[in-house]
Amino acid sequence: MSLTPTVAIVGRPNVGKSTLFNRLLGRRQAIVHDLPGITRDRITGIAQLNDDRPIQIVDTGGLVPGDDPLGLNEQVFLAVEESDLLLFVVDGRQGLVSADEEVWSHFRRSGKPALLVVNKADTREARNRFPEFYSLGIDQQILISAEHGAGIEDLREALALTLPEIPDVPTPDAPPIAIVGRPNVGKSSLLNKISGLNRALVSPVAGTTRDPVDTVITRGDKSYLLIDTAGIRRRSQVTGAPEELAVMMARRQIERAQVVVLVIDASQSVTGGDLAIAGTIWELGRAAVVAINKWDLLDDEGREKLEFDFQRLDELLASPGRVNVSALSGRGVEKLWPPIDRALDSYNLKLSTGQLNRLFERFIKKVAAPSLTGAPWKLYYVTQVSSAPPTFMLFANRTLPRNHHYRRYLENRLREELGLPGVPLRLVVRKRTE
What we know:
Rossmann fold; globular; 434 residues; alpha/beta; 3 domains
């Protein structure tokens, strides 16, 4: 199981960080504006290096040392702490200014490897003043134009060479379970309650540098690896952390898990941040269980609103197992285990080719396949190519577009037949001759 390295774009305000972020992603995602401090949300995205390796890019707000009433600097340092590499961006047209030196002195303390990115290479001033920046003491220095794309390929190459090797994380015998959610929704209380209810601690297991110790717990004849969220717990006090920052913090834990318990604060109903984290769970192909925390504090009106808002989450995660809990008192926490076990079984489901083909024969008999480009779509046979999540290869006379209604029909029928609550499944349709 490979983890996605994270790169934070940092610097003082208005040096072109968001423009660089958009350039690396290949699309306009961050808001670009001449006013300093405009970057607030939509701060993460996945970019591809030249070797097709995915990396997570984080666009941070400009660091302004000193008073920080809005907690924006705190969010920048949080992003730095979560990252594997920093891109320190400066304005080449202005040359080295004291604000760059002051800001870099703060980032240097993180001990993270860094590349110095001198922006605005399209100007003569930037090209002439490029050598000034060597005095910052950052070994690798690259001249680019974020706006026009000059030097971006050199930067991608430097990223590929500089990013630290993040080893594959082996899947242990005890299946890994992650507890994730927005800051301050009760993750730490829930984790502590789960650990306290299951005293048979087997051993600490080394995780990644960001997750130093995980815990194996045993319930009856089953063991589980609880992915330590201490890192998130420690940093969850950040004020006003934007939704995308919460997603970034959760991503590494999600990547390491088979089943993810998404904790929702019932008193806030289902927020955009909850949906963003759920989207990441689904995108990474992990099974989901939802824990609704503080349910007991809701009045009738609050419960009605939660039920209405939950429909979007239910659809996004394909009807995941849901448990109403109180992480503080422990009420309902034991009820999490049956849906976790069901999700694990479904996530690792394996079916024979014979079983699959009989199922699909029934599906197609019930709703006939559509005609595509004048000829009927015809399925030859189906086979399962992997589990975790269950992935099936369909060999047919032609492919089916990803959003085609018949592909959705087959997927929904298979999900109903197999009963896969909160578990993604993949259908790959291959064209072959009869």
